[in-house]
Amino acid sequence: MSEQTGQVYISVIIPSFNEADSLPHLVKEITDVMTEKKYSYEIIIVNDGSTDNSRKFLDNLSASDKKCKVLHFRRNSGQTAAMMAGIDYSKGEIIIPIDADLQNDPADIPVLIDKLNEGYDVCSGWRKNRKDNPLIRTLPSKIANYIIQLISGVKLNDYGCTLKAYRREIMQDIRLYGEMHRFIPIYASWNGAKVTQVQVNHRPRQYGKSKYGLKRTVKVILDLVVVKFIQAYFQRPIYVFGGFGLLSFGLSFLTFIGMLYFKYFGGKSFIQTPLPLVTILFLLIGIISVFMGLLAQINMMTYYESQDRKSYQIAYTRNME
Ligand code: UDP
Ligand code: MG
User: Fold this and answer.
1) Same domain, 265 and 228
2) Which whole-number Å values give the CA distances from 168 to 10, 16, 31, in the listed order?
3) Are residues 227 and 242 in the same domain?
4) Does the beta carbon of 103 sit less than 6 angstroms from any atom of ligand 1?
5) pTM for this structure?
6) Whose CA is nearest to atom 14 of ligand 1?
7) Residue 4 to residues 7, 40, 96, 116: CA-CA distances in angstroms?
8) How far, in Å, from the CA of 115 to the mean position of ligand 2?
9) Residue 56 to residue 54: CA distance in whole angstroms
10) Cα 229 versus chain centre, distance
């Protein structure tokens, strides 16, 4: 609770990369909503190494409005790292990340907060009428959402929507890498949090350019593999590796039987076609790459976490005491 009003303190977090034209409008929209609702709040804008006028604008803003706090990164580190930094520095009991480009509508913030007040720990925005390129963004994202739903067992329609509301407690122990900010509700739900979603407004981009394309969907799917693996790995690594090993032994036993069968009853040796070899080769390469990748991932996390390293570097901050 904040000391002055006894109200829940809200941290709005804005990861921002080259959004100088949008930021003034966004900050005004958020401030209007927050004052109208009489929330006690802070707005944390994370300047993710922008090369436009963002820095100047943000430094002026933070000088004139103490509720606007600013983190300047040394270099561009990505939306997830920016969000993580904002969360690390935030003080609110409720955390609300929002895009800097005005595509999310601050008018939805009270709706999310009301949901948390109903007793949920996470409320995710759902951009039902998404205003992005259908072919390279909306469709791949629909497919990705379906896969994520299947693998994670957490039913949301739009994991990728930045606008969400979290109770601070559920963010404890969550470290984010790559494109993983969208998986916070999944981690939270696995840890027993109550998760829900509401439809939110989505607006076309007015200023600046989108920073993403099709590549992001691929990254998201790979991150999902990591998240799922980590969940299993931290419980019992031997089940993951061992289970896979057993499966592999089983398969090789089957092919062995097949080999004998063909030799003695089919009259055809495997050497007559190269296909089985190629298939097995690719299968093996695939399996090995995935597992090597997962091990590398774990190594990377150990590296960052054991030394308490961050996935971002702050150049300087404003209004963060
Ligand atoms: N963003 C960021 N760092 C990056 C890329 C993007 O902080 O390296 C921010 C960006 O400024 C915006 C949000 O992440 O506030 C979402 O990016 P964008 O609007 O380009 O994504 P889209 O809406 O097209 O999915
Ligand atoms: Mg956008």
Assistant:
1) no
2) 10, 22, 21
3) no
4) yes
5) 0.84
6) 79
7) 8, 9, 21, 22
8) 24
9) 6
10) 16
Ligand 1 neighbour 17 (Cβ under 6 A): yes
Q: For 221-280, what is each residue's pLDDT tens digit? A: 888 888 888 777 665 666 667 777 778 777 777 877 777 787 788 777 767 766 677 778
On whether both 186 and 265 belong to a single domain, the answer is no
Asked if 47 and 154 sit in the same domain, the reply is yes
Look-up of token digits 């036993």: 253
Residues near ion ligand 2 (Cβ under 5 Å): 101, 103
Query: What is the percent of the chain where pLDDT is above 90?
Result: 56
What domain range includes position 44? 7-232
Is there an atom of ligand 1 within 6 Å of 50 CB? no
Q: Report whether residue 16 contacts ligand 1, using a CB cutoff of 6 Å.
A: yes
Pocket of ligand 1 contains residue 13 by CB under 6 Å? no
**What is the distance between the alpha carbons of residues 68 and 79, in angstroms, rounded to a whole number?**
19
Same domain for 283 and 163?
Answer: no
Is 3 a residue whose pLDDT tops 60? no
**130's tokens:** 């998404």
Which residue from 75, 79, 145, 179 has its CB within 8 A of the most atoms of ligand 1, so it is best to mutate? 79
